[in-house]
Amino acid sequence: MRSQGLTGAITMPGDKSISHRALMFGAMAQGETIISGLLEGEDVLATGRAMAQLGAKIEKRGNYWHVEGVGVGNFKQPSEPLDFGNAGTGVRLAMGLVGTYPFVSRYEGDASLSVRPMNRVLNPLREIGVEVVEEQPGGKLPIALKGPANPAPIHYKTPMASAQVKSAIMLAGLIIPGTTTVIEEVHTRDHTEKMLQGFGAKVDVTTDADGVRTIKVEGLPDLRGQEVLVPGDPSSAAFPMVAALIVPGSDLTIENVLMNPTRTGLITSLIEMGGDIELTNQRKSGGEDIADIRVKHSQLKGVTIPAERAASMIDEYPVLAVAASFARGATHMPGIDELRVKESDRLAAVANGLKANGVDCIEGEDFLTVEGMGDQVPGGGMVETHLDHRIAMCFLVMGLAAQNAVKIDDSAMIATSFPSFVPDMTRLGAQFGKPNH
Ligand code: S3P
């Protein structure tokens, strides 16, 4: 429903990527890892349950999550399949982390995860000598893996820009004697590199003149439990940020947001579109850049987003498309074919949602062009969310500024990454109608 200005301050839930990794690396390291700010969303909780099945002890005491890890190479064979629910990061990183062990491990997920491509991880694992004991046609879940008696280190160039694939190979490399090398042409989020170094792994990263990164991981390191401070998730901050830009009268401060340069492409893009966005209180915490974001309602203009920026804002395109709907002029987003293999086919889901709400757009195989309508976005449509939290949230944001209410078919998935989204946004002044079942 069209809302009055959004005002006040909001703190973001913990970063999803760092939360998954904190539980996994804590489970693998020797001794205790203490995590504050962990995202308690469904995706991350599924990873926590999987780590417990592998032998780690995980419990929440007060505001802290305590993980008692087993030490590198000491996971036990899980007696039941590891169920990652909706989480691509959870399952792909876990297949790297555990798949190389010389026992059978099984991986499964929900209906959305079960149609997502896993060959991107299975292929490098096969090169290491991992046997894919069970898979569904096209390399889909459920999958069972069995590691070789003598895994071999590989030298692997990732064929697509994917931090999940890079991370899976790096994690597999941890239990392989020798040096495992991953080459990535596009700099994707580097939380695995940074955090593994923090846990004591030897990870060497070099970047050549063309920006191609070579990451070398030494096998069999002695990893020790750490204190991990999880900063706020920039991918969640994207929703209140765009909401404040498009709802007239808004002036919002979003506190404690991760500013790792591999994650800030949306902020750069929204500023180019004329967004009044100011970073305040910039600081370092747990080896990462953090800031508060002050954002005010702004008249946006259409721009072309450089394809090279895609990796640094890959999860933010759906909500950028919503911002673009309220801009003057067209916004062109090339180089986004990876959106087709996220929690849903996000390119199609966004294009269909925009059209259902009276916004013209062109959906190409690997691009989206949105015809901005200024403050005249009709709304009034019903959006199919396809079990995708970000599709649900981005169209709820659209509804806050559209002329008519925007309906979504399901809001349950929001709990995977931002469980407090509706109450938090309501506190800032957002008005959401009741679902009519
Ligand atoms: C993630 C990497 C990205 C991103 C996902 C989280 C990670 O996926 O979309 O939400 O934590 O490594 P890809 O690696 O498939 O691009």
UniProtKB/TrEMBL annotation:
Binding, phosphoenolpyruvate: 16, 88, 116, 164, 346, 390
InterPro entries to which the protein is assigned, alphabetical: Enolpyruvate_Tfrase_dom, Enolpyruvate_Tfrase_sf, EPSP_synthase, EPSP_synthase_CS, RNA3'P_cycl/enolpyr_Trfase_a/b
Binding-site residues for 3-phosphoshikimate, renumbered to this chain: 16-17, 21, 162, 164, 315, 342
Residues annotated as the enzyme's active site: 315 (proton acceptor)
Record-linked Gene3D superfamilies: Enolpyruvate transferase domain
GO CC annotations, alphabetized: cytoplasm
Protein's pathway: Metabolic intermediate biosynthesis; chorismate biosynthesis; chorismate from D-erythrose 4-phosphate and phosphoenolpyruvate: step 6/7
PROSITE patterns for this protein: EPSP_SYNTHASE_1 (PS00104), EPSP_SYNTHASE_2 (PS00885)
Keyword Hydrolase among record annotations: no
GO biological process, one term: amino acid biosynthetic process
Coiled coil: none
Entry keyword annotation includes GTP-binding: no
Known EC number: 2.5.1.19
Occurrences of domain Enolpyruvate transferase (ranges): 4-424
One function term, GO molecular function aspect: 3-phosphoshikimate 1-carboxyvinyltransferase activity
Protein location: Cytoplasm
SUPFAM superfamilies, alphabetized: EPT/RTPC-like
Catalytic activity: 3-phosphoshikimate + phosphoenolpyruvate = 5-O-(1-carboxyvinyl)-3-phosphoshikimate + phosphate
A Pfam match: EPSP_synthase
Keyword annotations of the record: Amino-acid biosynthesis, Aromatic amino acid biosynthesis, Cytoplasm, Transferase
Family: Belongs to the EPSP synthase family.
Chain's role: Catalyzes the transfer of the enolpyruvyl moiety of phosphoenolpyruvate (PEP) to the 5-hydroxyl of shikimate-3-phosphate (S3P) to produce enolpyruvyl shikimate-3-phosphate and inorganic phosphate.
HAMAP family per record: EPSP_synth
Protein name per UniProt: 3-phosphoshikimate 1-carboxyvinyltransferase
Record organism: Maritalea myrionectae
Organism taxonomic ancestry: Bacteria, Pseudomonadati, Pseudomonadota, Alphaproteobacteria, Hyphomicrobiales
Gene: aroA
